[in-house]
Structure to design on (260 residues):
């Protein structure tokens, strides 16, 4: 058994057709999504993390794997009130007619469109925490979405930045419904190593450099950009630490405080 476990741990995560890599963080997020999907009746989970850890990519991967059973929406800043959210969801079904409808009617319409046993993936959910002019309440879309999910019979996944857990503290009814929340404060070395191994980079020096890059604003996006640029510099050669350092310079990431 120990040999089997060792082999599984040392295997290199494979990228899918869209380039998605199942890092440890991605696996953690997917486990929570799978859990709420397995519960009988509507369930809610929270995914919170620093920018660049792969939250959105994981949600989109989950949607691709369950195209008929999941709906993805991203909430822009300033568009977090229930009417905007309802319009955003309905637009996924080719219907954005919200004018003249009250929130109770929109809740029923959204519930009918999304339908039972589906999951609604709400990205950038921290933007739901805005003041609603008519009701003078803040974050009313959270309660509205939960009510819609319970009426429509669908699951909910709220995904956002690291402010999301503290926002949820304002809503005890949300906390009581939460199942296996995922909070990732920074990019892990294991995730960086998973991306590096896709290019055959497993040396300590190379991974150390990429791990330092991942600590900058942008997280794994920085790692991907550096590896991509380094591959261009390498040409037909194997990417090395020299190519990675040249890529860091070319992308001007050293100006953000990266030590080489």
């Amino acid at each position: 058994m120990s040999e089997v476990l060792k082999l599984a741990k040392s295997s290199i995560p494979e990228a899918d057709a869209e380039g998605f890599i199942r890092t440890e963080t991605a696996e953690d997020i997917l486990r929570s999504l799978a859990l709420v999907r397995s519960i009988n009746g509507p369930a809610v989970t929270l995914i919170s993390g620093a920018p660049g850890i792969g939250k959105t990519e994981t949600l989109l991967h989950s949607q691709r794997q369950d195209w008929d059973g999941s709906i993805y929406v991203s909430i822009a800043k300033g568009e977090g009130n229930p009417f905007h959210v309802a319009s955003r969801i309905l637009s996924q079904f080719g219907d954005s007619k919200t004018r003249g409808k009250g929130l109770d009617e929109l809740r029923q319409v959204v519930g009918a469109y999304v339908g039972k046993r589906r999951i609604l993936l709400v990205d950038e959910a921290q933007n739901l925490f805005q003041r609603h002019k008519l009701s003078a309440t803040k974050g009313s879309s959270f309660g509205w979405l939960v009510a819609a999910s319970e009426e429509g019979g669908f699951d909910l996944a709220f995904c956002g930045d690291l402010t999301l857990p503290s926002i949820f503290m304002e809503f005890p009814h949300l906390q009581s419904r939460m199942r296996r929340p995922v909070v990732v404060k920074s990019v892990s070395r294991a995730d960086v190593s998973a991306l590096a191994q896709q290019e055959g980079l497993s040396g300590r020096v190379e991974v150390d450099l990429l791990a330092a890059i991942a600590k900058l604003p942008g997280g794994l996006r920085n790692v991907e950009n550096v590896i991509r640029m380094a591959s261009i510099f390498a040409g037909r050669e194997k990417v090395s630490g020299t190519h990675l350092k040249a890529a860091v310079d070319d992308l001007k990431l050293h100006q953000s405080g990266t030590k080489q």
